[in-house]
Amino acid sequence: MRIGRPLVEMLKEFMEKQPTSFHVPGHKNGMISGLPKGIQGALPFDLTELTGLDDFHHPEGAIYEAEKLLAETYGANRSFFLVNGSTVGNLAMIYTTCKRNEKVIVQRNAHKSIFHGLQLVGAKPIYVSPEWDEKSRTATHVPLSTLKEVLSIHRDVKAVILTSPTYYGAVSKELKEQIALCHELGIPVLVDEAHGAHFTASRRFPESALEVGADMVVQSAHKTLPAMTMASFLHIKSNLVDSERVNRYLRMLQSSSPSYLLLASLDDARHYVQTYSEVDANYLLEKRKQWIEALRSIPSLQVIEMDDPLKVLLRVPGYTGFQLKEALEKRGLYPELADLHQVLLILPLLKQGQIFSFADARISIKEAVQSLKTAEKINILPTTLKEIQKISIPEYSFDELEEMKVEWIPYVRAIGKVSASMVIPYPPGIPLFIPGEKITVSKLSQLEELIAAGASFQGDHRLEEKLLCVVRS
Ligand SMILES: Cc1ncc(COP(=O)(O)O)c(C=O)c1O
User: Which atom of ligand 1 is nearest to 84's Cα?
Assistant: First the structure.
């Protein structure tokens, strides 16, 4: 395989010509930009589809070469660069495989872009719930047995949409078997691997969904590879999915003015994976091991390792993750997220010889943990997935909901009503209410428990006013 960065090289060659800009973008190579100097420095590379710079939607030159190298690096039949995150990849996967009123099996703890895709297409989701993992105190994956059960009832599904790894770095152990089962029935499997773009880089990392047979896989290169925010990949390796159809939808969903900074960073991130060696992986894993050992000597601190070596959880019993996060941020250390129980750290995908400030970070973590002694202790209720149905189908389809009148009512009066919006407790990150689903007594009591415990919520809600949006009856 050729080792190079065709897109980066193309931009460098173009800039060497010292071109005068009489074209978009309006900042004229940064010349009339008022942005800070550091950002201005990158603007000459913020080019557009000029002569010789290829065409994102009909690539024939450097973009074509770079996407070909991407597919080779990941072992895909065809791969695409995405300039609107995994979000646009999820939308394109859904548009490609599902039509209005067609059934789709969807892991319930999916990212909102999946739900939005289903809503836009007007597909009929059948939700399957993940298991609860006590070690990480997070919702993880749908068991194979649930998938078998749902497929034995609904044989006419057009796609199965799974997420692995989770945000917290839990990798599905049964993905291979699940994909094989779906393939026996001729059903394509779409995997949201937003957090696993680095898995392909080393044999010592978890297996990528592509390696275990997924038909389409979306990855946020920007989450764990050295790519710019929004820069993502979409891979196809399937005889059930038409890659031209994917291409067509991507042309509709993505900008006609792609950022060349993003494209260059994707080319660079792909190159980083391609040149990542086992020596690099050994170096990273050794540094990580030493750091985790050092962290474990901090009194009261619990360190939880996940399947993904880049994900580490920190917990201090008696204190919420939100308290720990605040204490860390006061010391200049910014975690990825906090939940009731813990904070999530994402480690860098180091290559041999690269230095990261692990030692300083340990000092900040130690100080933060010590500072919590003066903070108020919180009685954290154990989060579980109790009474969440294994398999559920909404009362109304997205299309039916569009035509219905909705109203905001106090949530204590919502029992028996149909939810018109999505409410996602975080954790566990699984929607408690999905548009079209009935609000039951048990779900409402879970909502109250979570509010009392200080959980935060994503989605469309006005919980601070104690209101939920429901279908007017
Ligand atoms: C599991 C998952 N899928 C998809 C996305 C969307 O990715 P992006 O931010 O690249 O659009 C996210 C974002 O956090 C995510 O966590």
Answer: 11
